[in-house]
Specification:
The chain has 669 residues and is of the alpha/beta class. Helices cover 18% and strands 33% of the residues. The relative contact order is 0.13. The structure holds alpha-L-arabinofuranose.
Amino acid sequence: MPARSRPRLSALALLAALPALALAQPLTLTVDASAPGKAISPDLVGIFFEDLNYAADGGLYAELVQNRSFEYSAVEQAAWGPLTNWDFVKRGGGAGDLWIDTSGPVHPNNPHSALIQITNAGEGVGLANSGFDGIAVKAGEKYEFSAFARLLNVGGRRDSRPAGKLPLIVRLESKDGAVIAETGVEASSPAEWRKLTATLTAGQTVADARLVVLAKAPGLIALDELSIFPQNTFKGRKNGLRADLAQTIADLKPKFMRFPGGCLAHGDGIPDMYRWKDTVGPVEQRKQLPNIWRYHQSMGLGYFEYFQFCEDIGAKPLPVVPAGVTCQNSTRTRGTGQQCLPLEDMPAYVQEVLDLIEYANGPATSTWGAKRAAAGHPAPFGLRHIGVGNEDHITDGFEQRFKMIHDAVRAKHPEIVVIGTVGPAPDGPDFTRGWKFADAERVAMVDEHYYKAPQWFWENLSRYDSYDRAKPHVYLGEYAAHDVKRRSTLRAALAEAACLTSLERNADVVRFASYAPLLAKRGHTQWTPDLIYFNNTEVFPTLSYEIQKLFGNNSGDHWIESRLAPAAGAGLPTDLAYSSVRDSATGDVILKIVNGAASARPLRLDLRGFPRLPAQATRIVLAHADADVANEDGRPPAASPQSASITVTSAFDYEAPAHSLTLFRIASR
Ligand code: AHR
């Protein structure tokens, strides 16, 4: 073809074609295992647990009875009260009355109980509870019933005996009244609180059963703390956790777990501040609180259970205590903003924080270590980190109180790393002042938070490259990519994956990172997106969960030099991220590549300094052509990690699919 007649690209057409051309040419990604690299945090990927979205009661905490101790109140929701979720049941000619009584509580922290007068037992008079959207039971499985009962009178007449016995029937019933499980217990005088227990075996699988407790003779009886637990809790723990949800969390292989929040930690006004001592000891004696997210905290899942769960899943415990100030957005403070504990109360509060360290780590002979031992764990829990404050407004009041706590912990427990807070955003006045203060006080680590659009994550991948390594370390305590309508899309998950590659590269300064929030119950969600959705019988992990799981299960403790060389004439892409780490325990090198582009990207992988090549490798790919897909809607997953065994050589071509994370785990010993 003569030169003149050749079709020519116009300048505009050429510009339009450039991205596609750049994508078509292979980039070379070199991983150099012989370069020094650097030691990085072996604990980078962990979890953030907050009792938000019914994550605890009605969620991870396996208790099946809702409002078991009659402590719901209108402070939580206007229509709520002690009898919320309870029905007064009179069967087959039964007659009587029901009151809420506060005259003789099981414990001062648990003031309300149900007082039932049975004038005519008929086929039974008592209470029914429909759990959290129903009680889900499985055929053949066992359920532990317990309740506190105080029998005040037997016979139901004025002259009847104050002493004696009152038989009670305990049932799990379907909505239409069919009996799924039944057993009997007996309340007996004298009139003091006694714990009744029984085991029920479900005859059917039902998603929405109710607990029914019926007195079978006339009398006057007080009941409190009515409870049904599956015997099959996670690791079989008493007062334990829902097995399937806990296992989904354990599968992330989190290196640490932060608890109990979030905003929940500093609370909705001073009376609502989360005080760890109120959450340990017998469950019926724990002090319950309105949840800042507008529901109720039974505190059945308290500090002991958090520590135990951490141990059970191999995660370091990372409790966050209030810094002596409340949430600046508390609504119960009626717009007064942050409230501070009075200074005269601070010495006792500081002691409370020191006591927490003793509770976790002290010998079983120490005051607080003995309480841990009494709860069933004589060995220490190995606490090494404690967060002080959450997203607090950095004010004079905050700084004064934080310093009191920080100085006391540092003086008495130099082995504990205190993590400070730098406000709710990755920049702005609280961030700037928080950092300045933490730096001046030589705080070991600070807690950064960001919830931003996926694109923000891609644009900020170099955020930590320039952080001063001599300043406090960073805990990225809360982060999530918020896509349009706050859906858990693949686009968001890949932005988080890209962020994680940058965190791995900077894990000499960023020591911990946790996606937030962790759990959300369908129909009871105050915040989206979340990592794991669930209802009473099913668990729906998101694509963000798959990313956290891939990083959690393929972490390293040494960063390996890797670099990208652009194709001839092209710049470096802004939608490609990568990192490589070595896991010293196995010797494996793990290379992660995130392609945020809508087209496949050809790459030339150049592996240098590996002691043994060709080598066996596992390649895992999470990809979908449509970045809008999401997984947690109950339908079969749109995208899931695909794993293959391959052999890698010192140089090979790989085409990273559109919208993908690819992970190579290369045996290198
Ligand atoms: O993760 C949800 C909330 O986001 C946390 O409670 C709070 O710390 C942040 O604002």
